[in-house]
Design brief:
The protein is of the alpha+beta class. The protein contains 12 helices and 5 strands. A 5-stranded mixed sheet has the order 1-3-5-4-2, sandwiched between helices. The radius of gyration is 23 Å and the shape is elongated.
């Protein structure tokens, strides 16, 4: 919920807030950040979609968010503690005009899911989109306790900092790709009819690619024909099921286990290499390009991708096989592979 130095506004804005009755103690040792930059990137995607300028990530505000995520996981409740946040502002020497906090819980830990929860809540949405105050900076974190994940974001309008400028004009119909290093690849992907984005106006460039989404990317990119065979038993609720069956019929995938495709699992760089190597029927190579994939069952596919010039790795000697592939990265892989 938001708060500010202006008493009349505070009274009206806090009527819906759940205020904590006790002041929680400061976390004794700094907690490790989990997803801070990703939380702010997620928020900025929603802000861009609403025509709002981006907030900047603040290390100090992120630390406060880390502490708050730990605190609400410890409470197991939904209490805001504005006094605690103000005290931590003083500790960090932060001069502020207004601030707001949003908190949530889910069982997946997905940052995008937290974002959607907040967008579905009018009060939280108002804070994330700066509908009451022109917030300039933010921080966020998540913390796991048992089977549940707890997340907190703090948005702040710092003294003397101008309101963020509106986002750049849309590119290829998207409001969230102007700052992507892969903008040309994304535009190519859209022009090729491989994707329409994650919504009518957003591409979600930093969102992880799921196995079901990978199937649709490849089926559309290669124009694979439909099939009446149902290859897997765990994709019946997926909107991508027809494309999953298409790539199975084309022998691009054998699934993740007997009669299973695991549609909601994310794609790693190593798995992506095998998908592309099979889809493109890339030839074998005797060269070993990277030093960090020796234990990977996908090493041969990784080398085939490198030999074809589709990847140069994450460094000159590493492929980072276990890193998850984002949508913008997938756009670059497909552009190099198919254009």
């Amino acid at each position: 919920m938001p708060t500010a130095r202006f008493p009349r506004l505070v009274r009206s804005l806090l009527t819906a807030a759940l205020l904590a009755s006790t002041l929680l103690t400061t976390v004794a040792a700094p907690a490790s950040a989990d997803g801070g930059a990703s939380f702010v990137a997620m928020a900025n995607e929603h802000r861009a979609d609403a025509g709002k300028g981006p907030v900047a990530l603040s290390a100090a505000i992120e630390q406060i968010s880390i502490e708050r995520a730990v605190q609400i996981s410890r409470d197991g409740g939904w209490n805001h503690d504005f006094d605690y946040i103000k005290r931590r502002f003083r500790d960090f020497g932060i001069c502020w005009n207004s601030f707001g906090e949003i908190i949530a819980m889910n069982q997946t830990g997905s940052i995008d899911t937290f974002g959607q929860q907040w967008m579905d809540s009018p009060g939280h949405k108002a804070i994330m989109l700066s509908e009451q105050f022109p917030f300039t900076h933010a921080g966020g974190s998540r913390h796991q306790a048992g089977s549940k994940w707890y997340a907190a974001m703090v948005f702040v309008q710092l003294c003397g900092v101008p309101e963020p400028a509106p986002p750049a004009p849309t590119i290829a119909g998207f409001t969230d790709i102007s700052t992507s290093a892969f903008v040309d690849d994304i535009v190519w992907l859209v022009d090729a009819g491989v994707t329409n984005g994650c919504s009518d106006s957003r591409f979600c460039p930093r969102q992880s690619v799921l196995r079901e989404q990978m199937a649709s990317f490849l089926a559309r990119a290669q124009g694979l024909p439909p099939t009446s065979t149902d290859y897997f038993g765990d994709d019946g609720s997926s909107i991508h099921e027809p494309d999953i069956n298409r790539i199975a019929a084309a022998r691009v995938t054998e699934g993740c286990g007997p009669a299973r495709y695991c549609p909601r699992q994310t794609i790693t760089r190593a798995e992506m290499a095998s998908f592309l190597a099979r889809a493109l029927a890339l030839p074998s190579t005797g060269r070993d390009y990277f030093a960090d994939d020796e234990d990977s069952m996908h090493e041969d596919a990784i080398n085939r991708l490198a030999a074809a010039g589709i990847t140069t790795g994450c460094t000159t000697t590493s492929f980072c096989p276990l890193n998850v592939v984002t949508r913008e990265q997938m756009a670059a892989f497909l552009h190099r592979a198919l254009d």
